[in-house]
Amino acid sequence: MMENAWLIPLFPLLSFLILLLFGKRLKKASAYVGIIFTLASLIFSILVLFERFSEPTYMTKFEWLTIGDLHLTAGFEVNQLNALMLFIVSLVSFLVHTYSKGYMNGDERFPVFYAYLGLFTFAMLGLVLSPNLLQTYIFWELVGVGSFLLIGFYFNKEEAKAAAKKAFIMTRIGDVGLFIGMILLFWETKSFEYSEIFKAVDSGAVSGTMITLTAILIFIGAVGKSGQFPLHTWLPDAMEGPTPVSALIHAATMVAAGVYLVAALFPLFLASKTALLTIAVIGAFTAIFAASIGLVQTDIKRVLAYSTVSQLGYMMLALGSGGYVAGVFHLMTHAFFKALLFLAAGSVIHAVHTQNIEEMGGLWKKLKLTGPLFLIGTLAISGVPLLSGFFSKDEILIAAWEGGHPILFLLALIAAFMTAFYMFRLFFMVFTGEARSEMKHVHESPNNMTFPMILLGVLAIVAGYVNTPWFGSFFGDWLVDGNPALGHGHIEGPIWIMIAATVVSLLGIYVAYLMYFKRSLSRNWLSGTGDTLHTILLNKYYVDEFYQLTVIAFTKGFSYFLRFIDVFVVEGLVKGVVGIVQGLGKTGSKMQTGQVQTYGAVAFIGLALLAVIFALTGGYLR
Amino acid sequence: MSLKTLSEFNWSVMTPEFIILGVIALLTLLDLFMPKRLDRRILGWLSIAGIFAAIVSVVSLLSVEPTSILHDTFTLDTFGKAFKLLLLAGAGLVMFLAVSYEAKDGMEDYRGEFYYLFLTALLGAMFMTSSSDLITLFIGLELLSISSYILAGIRKHNLKSNESAMKYVINGGISTAITLFGMSYVYGLSGTTNLGEIANTLSMVADGQQAYLLGLAFLMILVGLSFKLASAPFHMWAPDVYQGAPTPVTAFLSVVSKTAGFVIVIRILIAVFYNAAPSGEGGSILFRMHDYLAFLAAATMIIGNVVALKQTNIKRMFAYSSIAHAGYLLVALTTMSSNMIFSVWFYLLAYMLMNLGAFAVIQVITEKSGSTKIADFAGLYRRSPVLAVTMGILLVSLAGFPGTAGFIGKLNIFVGAFYGEPHYVLASIMIATTVVSYFYYFGVMTQMFFRPARDESKFNVPFGIIVVLIVAVVGSILFGIAPNIALDFLNNLQ
């Protein structure tokens, strides 16, 4: 089966092509095309995953391009990480395809939406199968294009257009780092292939500084894609896209690509202590930073967006502390419960037609399925014992502690408290309390929307049991099998960490309960006690503003000088280039008089000029 | 030359040419004796069959050792085989366009000639790939040119078509004169017209004066032949001629004729100027003159791409785009890397596929709308998603995006520019002008996908066009994803 893994990305590609060509004629049947093809991908992925449990890594490559004595290869590889990612991506994609049939119903560009989903899924599946950096990079960019199209799907909305652009540009900034890192590695190791790169790093053929430099550059690419500080601002804005897209892109696939990249290149990162520390610090900071912003957001999707940023920070922290298994484990559980949360949020929005949680309330009785499912997701992400998020978060905390980062561990623990708090704040505000009078016609979503949520709900509960301190760490052992460098399947940690994590998350839930359910604590304690803090959080630490402000301050500081450069040099240059190109085009068109004499004359004058230069330079130019 | 020596030549190496010649003769006779009322389209299908037979015969000759007959005036070598296949494939696809072309504006009575004039032009081009003598090279060139002149003007009652033919003849005449003048210098200095002997004689030019004359000859031949390449400074005829000529002829000029132009330029550059090495430092004439070549390549890329931005007529836009592509190919010639012939061959292959495919779409659209404005493409995605997506793929390939043959072609040339002495300036101009080209190619995309259609009428796509489109799209993607197929093929040639 594994030798046929290359078929997995091709199914969604086929779906994309068919829908692009015949979408107009298929109309609503487009959904079935998309669903059937992603189902095929899913079945293949499951078969591949199960075969990979018992068989060794499969890899094949062929010479793709020869330019002179430069040989580039292409191929695909099924190792543990890739097989797992194939499964996660194709599963979530399949569920999102199914869900969208109900959610996007009635949209004018319904077939186009499914076509874009196919393109994006193809790119993502291609990405996780790539055995070399160049191929990864090509698919990486394609993922960017796919997300651009999906986020900007409602292109009549200015915000959506702006968000799509922002996402594209922000991640492009990271991509530049990745690109430079990739080229540097190629110069050093003479290969794009992962295995060759690891070999060269192992043998000491690459200097330590170079490893650190390239590792950090590649990490910058991951920072962009995975929405880590300071390139995170695109992710919340990207919520302008349709909600199923958020479940696909912002839970399981594109944002996970950055974590995947770090995991796939883990041996390279392991060779540099500095790079690892950078990842851990950025990860821990992002985790608490985004969680604190999540405390005060009032848009249901934005809360989830910031929680995604925060959870991705956790994964980075785990990887940076050397916890390969913990990072990948959390990547998997997070994919399930966050996709569930997004789909459930979509179901809520579908029912009440608003995203503002202040305007919601009392939906528990009306959405009999969505409510409990949302609760499952909330419990899982809060790290309540016995659900999947509990086990993976525990692994991360242990990894951070054992990795020797007590401060980062503390940050992560506080972030866990905040997570439990803001997630239950969200839950209580949406599902409990008074039902709004204008929400009389609220009804549960159709079956094709609830089915994916139920499946994800089950996974959000049980997915953690593949790797627990009680029932054995089957998952972790399998993940690092044959790769002792990646560390142990399960890191033994002190038992108090697990207790602390539980206490912290329960405490968060309790505070949220007091504040938003019992209302015995003032809801406005934050804005009451510290007006500034609340404002700061509400404004997301002014990062967007900071970006604007620094530019302005910078301009003011060097006011005239910069103004001069800006107006006369930069602008002049830009205008000049455009003007020259336009002018040349105009002149060229004007010279095209239509008179055949002119044409002959131009040729003749050209020849004469060349001959004159030739004569004047004494025959030879050099 | 006695009959005996004549019969001793290994004529079989000329089979492809004989097949084409035979088909031409057959078509002429059929056209003469067929009743007037019968549809001449059958002649077009016969030509396609003939071209196919010629392709088969070239393939069967692939394993033959390089052979020379007729006192070294006709050589079948690797170079000849590879480019002959390219020409035949290109001409075959053009024939499919021609069969689907609707005859009007006074062309109705000359339908038969329309087909076999393509074949005579092709025959000229094929002779050029195999000739190793200045005279046969020139004869091939003229056979190609004169046939094309008539083809451009075959719509007798169409003013644009007449104008096109007229301009083509006059400019062609000037270019021929210049080329011949340059060749006469070469002959005068070497005393022979055989390329091999020229190379021998000129490899020991002792005299600085002679080297000087050779330099002048180089410039003249280059400028004269730039007419066929449609490159600076002899490019200005292209937009007017392309616009007025029937679409299959335009396609032929932009692909087959250009390929033939590069064949003759490479033959002469390598045989004559690469080997001509005056004593003293500085290497061969070609090496010393390569700044001029670089200058013309840069000028061609800039002119083609920049002026294309301003066009509102799709055929004129493609004329400038074809100038631009000639510029990229000249970059490969300038750098003369060890990979040069493969780069040029592959680029011409990719260019043939994507350009002929694009012209097939253009033919469908312009015949429907009756005009050749770019605005006629508006809303094509709504009217015919298949045509729009096909055109989209071909445009993306023309612009040189990864995953398409156009990308690999540009990559080969680009990497070649860094072999030996790096050509930073030329490589940067190539990148910059490629970026400029995105604007006009994507202008057409915007029209197709994001503009409302003026009318919603559907298209009838003839069978011939479908064949061309399938070949073009499959080829563009196949050679973009697995370029080594082409490389292996060329490496296995004997």
From TrEMBL, chain A:
The alphabetized UniProt keywords are: Membrane, Transmembrane, Transmembrane helix
Q: Where is the NADH:quinone oxidoreductase/Mrp antiporter transmembrane domain?
A: 130-419
What membrane topology is given?
Multi-pass membrane protein
Start and end residues of each NADH-Ubiquinone oxidoreductase (complex I) chain 5 N-terminal domain: 64-114
* Domain of life of the native organism: Bacteria
List residues traversing the bilayer.
6-22, 29-50, 81-100, 112-131, 137-155, 167-187, 207-224, 245-269, 275-296, 303-325, 331-352, 373-392, 407-432, 453-475, 495-516, 599-621
InterPro entries from the UniProt entry = NADHpl_OxRdtase_5_subgr (IPR018393), ND/Mrp_TM (IPR001750), NU5C-like (IPR003945), Proton_antipo_N (IPR001516)
**What Pfam families does its record include?**
Proton_antipo_M, Proton_antipo_N
Where is this protein localized, as stated in its record? Answer: Cell membrane; Membrane
Is the keyword Transmembrane in the record? Answer: yes
Q: Which family does it belong to?
A: Belongs to the CPA3 antiporters (TC 2.A.63) subunit A family.
What NCBIfam families is this protein classified in?
NDH_I_L, PRK06590.1
* Protein name (Swiss-Prot/TrEMBL): NADH-quinone oxidoreductase subunit L
TrEMBL record, chain B:
Membrane-spanning residues? 12-30, 42-62, 82-101, 113-129, 135-154, 166-187, 211-230, 251-272, 292-310, 317-338, 344-365, 386-408, 423-442, 463-486
Q: Which reaction does it catalyse?
A: a quinone + NADH + 5 H(+)(in) = a quinol + NAD(+) + 4 H(+)(out)
What's the protein called, per UniProt? NADH-quinone oxidoreductase subunit N
Q: Which UniProt keywords apply?
A: Cell membrane, Membrane, NAD, Quinone, Translocase, Transmembrane, Transmembrane helix, Transport
Q: Which family does it belong to?
A: Belongs to the complex I subunit 2 family.
Per UniProt, subcellular location reads as: Cell membrane; Membrane
For this protein's source organism, the top of the classification is:
Bacteria, Bacillati, Bacillota, Bacilli, Bacillales
For whether the record's keyword set contains Cell membrane, the answer is yes
Keyword Protease found: no
Q: Which InterPro entries match?
A: NADH-Q_OxRdtase_suN/2, ND/Mrp_TM
Q: Which residues form the NADH:quinone oxidoreductase/Mrp antiporter transmembrane domain?
A: 131-433
Q: How does it assemble?
A: NDH-1 is composed of 14 different subunits. Subunits NuoA, H, J, K, L, M, N constitute the membrane sector of the complex.
PANTHER family for this protein: NADH DEHYDROGENASE
Superkingdom:
Bacteria
Q: Which Pfam families match?
A: Proton_antipo_M (PF00361)
